[in-house]
């Protein structure tokens, strides 16, 4: 599938000088969206994951149908204060401060093999934090999957040798 034809390029967003790659137009084409999920599932099936971590918020939109396609439980990874039960959390640096991601402790077991999923791999901060969450709970990271990877930001390098699968690399 040609994912690029479903990506809108927005100049100067969220600030001047940034060229934002918006993948949300794929939701306007149910057939393309379905095909993307099929291809994404095929690309990660061999990793042997038992659960999927999906990052808030766009990761949820793709992670949910991916979990159904693979027949795997979905563990939502949320920002601090958004989950009602006991959580484990990891804070990580951003270019403009810090953020904290959390999962429910009961949703992950030590024998789990976690597929880390997000829509875009940029600097790797979010993906690295999700890997750390899985490891804090004693689970194994099976690999990381993304729809698009912005290779010039070198996010893959922050993932310390974890298997990375990206549908589109720019």
UniProtKB/TrEMBL annotation:
Keywords: Cytoplasm, Glycosyltransferase, Purine salvage, Transferase. Its EC number is 2.4.2.7. Residues 31-148 form the Phosphoribosyltransferase domain. Transmembrane segments: none annotated. Pfam families: Pribosyltran. Coiled coil: none annotated. One of its GO terms (molecular function) is adenine phosphoribosyltransferase activity. InterPro entries: Ade_phspho_trans, PRTase-like, PRTase_dom, UPRTase/APRTase. It is found in: Cytoplasm. It catalyses: AMP + diphosphate = 5-phospho-alpha-D-ribose 1-diphosphate + adenine. CDD domains: PRTases_typeI. Pathway: Purine metabolism; AMP biosynthesis via salvage pathway; AMP from adenine: step 1/1. It is an enzyme of class 2 (transferase). Homodimer. Catalyzes a salvage reaction resulting in the formation of AMP, that is energically less costly than de novo synthesis. PANTHER family: ADENINE PHOSPHORIBOSYLTRANSFERASE. Belongs to the purine/pyrimidine phosphoribosyltransferase family. This is Adenine phosphoribosyltransferase. It comes from Intestinicryptomonas porci.
